[in-house]
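Please decode residue identities from the backbone states below.
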């Protein structure tokens, strides 16, 4: 593996890795095997939420992989650059063969290519390569092999196929019930600064969805929960249901107990401001539905 693929300006310490593994509820694996990769990926998906809370509060965190790793260990989640940056650095430090890819997440089948709005990871164990991704919200629970096929994980069915827009790359197609249509990535490895400009746009532009509304997502083997504004959406084998979290007590209980964002990551002032913003966003959203 070429070190620049997951390099940061500084590398994690033993205590950094120990703290991250405590967050995942796992012991340090003895070898970088496929079994260890699957266990780490499942734990990351189940315990570390996809979320944009700090961005929504107007103080977006950076995307340096070491910063992201330390934030995960401290109880935060993150969006794709942060979640996959942290996981990629963890895996690299544990001896896995990790490659970072310039990628794009798209809402329609007509849009193609690696547009830079997503960081994807691939990992090689033995003679098999895997798509590893903790930054897709309601995406994969376990790694997917880079083999053409259809894969069922919990309530969703996914499709893997070589990308026609990015020769040598791959296209991950989401279930129609999911939050986006597909993701595809370019095959070449990319460095740690490749996403800086897009991160700035996504976390500061008034037109960005990350700025307009809070989004928090987490899944396990059989269920997927997504909180957007004050609406909590739950998907399982029986279908999808929605209900409103109408009080701050209910909203923050879900944030901490369902999505595992540590209470210590938010001050009392943060909570007051966050609930006020959530309420304003929710009321604006309701106005668009009734107008």
């Amino acid at each position: 593996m070429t070190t620049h693929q997951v390099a940061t300006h500084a590398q994690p310490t033993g205590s950094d890795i120990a703290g991250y593994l405590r967050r995942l509820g796992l012991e340090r694996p003895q070898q970088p095997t496929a079994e260890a990769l699957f266990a780490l990926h499942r734990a990351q998906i189940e315990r570390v939420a996809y979320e944009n809370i700090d961005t929504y509060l107007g103080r977006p965190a950076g995307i340096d992989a070491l910063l992201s790793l330390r934030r995960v260990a401290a109880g935060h989640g993150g969006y794709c650059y942060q979640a996959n940056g942290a996981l990629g650095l963890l895996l690299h430090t544990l001896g896995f063969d990790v490659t970072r890819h310039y990628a794009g997440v798209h809402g329609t089948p007509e849009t193609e290519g690696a547009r830079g709005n997503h960081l994807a990871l691939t990992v090689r164990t033995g003679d098999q390569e895997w798509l590893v991704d903790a930054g897709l919200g309601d995406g994969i629970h376990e790694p997917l092999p880079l083999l053409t096929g259809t894969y069922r994980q919990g309530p969703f069915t996914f499709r893997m196929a070589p990308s026609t827009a990015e020769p040598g790359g791959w296209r991950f197609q989401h279930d129609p019930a999911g939050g986006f249509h597909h993701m595809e990535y370019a095959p070449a490895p990319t460095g740690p600064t490749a996403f800086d400009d897009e991160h700035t746009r996504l976390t500061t532009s008034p037109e960005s969805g990350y700025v307009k509304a809070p989004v928090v997502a987490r899944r396990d083997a059989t269920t997927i929960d997504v909180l957007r504004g004050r609406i909590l959406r739950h998907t399982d084998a029986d279908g999808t249901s929605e209900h409103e979290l109408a009080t701050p007590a209910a909203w923050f209980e879900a944030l901490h107990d369902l999505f595992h964002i540590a209470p210590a990551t938010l001050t009392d002032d943060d909570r007051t401001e966050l609930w006020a913003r959530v309420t304003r966003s929710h009321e604006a959203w309701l106005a668009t539905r009734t107008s």
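Observation: The longest strand covers residues 97-106.
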